[in-house]
Amino acid sequence: MFTLFPRNLTVKETYKLMSGAVVPRPIAFVTTASTVNGVVNAAPFSFFNVISADPPLLSISVGRTQDGEMKDTARNAAESKEFVVHIVDENIAEDMNQTAAALPAHQSELDLTDLTTIESDQVSVPGIREARVRFECKLERHLTFQNDQAETVNDLLIGRIVCFHLADEVYDAEKGYIRTDALRPIARLAGNDYAKWGETFTLIRPT
User: Fold this and answer.
1) By its UniProt entry, which InterPro entries does this protein fall under (predicted)?
2) Residue 147 and which of 83, 111, 172, 197 are 20 to 30 A apart at CA?
3) Domain membership flag for residue 81
4) Tell me, what CATH number does 69's domain have?
């Protein structure tokens, strides 16, 4: 077994180990309102997960640029304190990937796609109509993290869900369940690789 210490690795080497081992990861497809001109910025993030059901909290980690600048999503969310998180399924995977392009803040990444927006109920930021699960969020907390050189390199957004939007075909209203087989979410692996919904198995938890 290899034993490696982060202090002996480059940032790229550390990233490759973490992103290749912590898999599969859910993808947060996030819309925010640009602080420059109000257009809808959209971007995917795979350092993303749930924190709590009470209160309903999500976390999204947004790395900064090489020169230490906040990315559009983090800056927009920190200023407006609102954003919308969408779960990426197979139907919107290609469009989601297009929004990973680095565009100026005044341009909308959605212009690179066939996706359309829809007005939200509880926040001013629009959602993506074609996404079958979306969470309207208020910014609960914004945390920053520094590296060993005391450079701020990461913004952690913690969002409180204030509204759920669930497509009819993926929500079992009687049981209150998400039908994952119908949603068919995709997950992030390493490099350019993703995983589709596939084989599942069940383990009963001990009491």
Assistant:
1) Flavin_Rdtase-like_dom (IPR002563), Split_barrel_FMN-bd (IPR012349)
2) 83
3) yes
4) 2.30.110.10
- Alpha-carbon distance of 49 to 87, in angstroms, equals 11
The amino acid present at 92, given as its one-letter code, is I
Q: For 128, how many CA atoms within 13 A lie in the half-sphere containing its CB?
A: 35
Full residue range of the structural domain in which residue 65 is found? 6-195
Residue 1 included in any domain: no
Q: What is the pLDDT of residues 16-66, one digit of tens each?
A: 999 999 999 999 999 999 999 999 999 999 999 999 999 999 999 999 998
pTM: 0.95
Q: Mean pLDDT score of the chain, rounded to an integer?
A: 96
Domain contains 202: no
CA dist list (Å): 41 to 51, 115, 142, 160 = 24, 12, 18, 20
Q: What's the structural domain count of the chain?
A: 1
DSSP 205: P
Residue 165 and residue 178 in contact, taking contact as beta carbons nearer than 8 Å: no
Whether 155 is covered by a domain: the verdict is: yes
The DSSP-derived string for 44-106 is: EESSEEEEEETTEEEEEEEEPPTTSPPPHHHHHHHHH-EEEEEE-BGGGHHHHHHTTS---TT
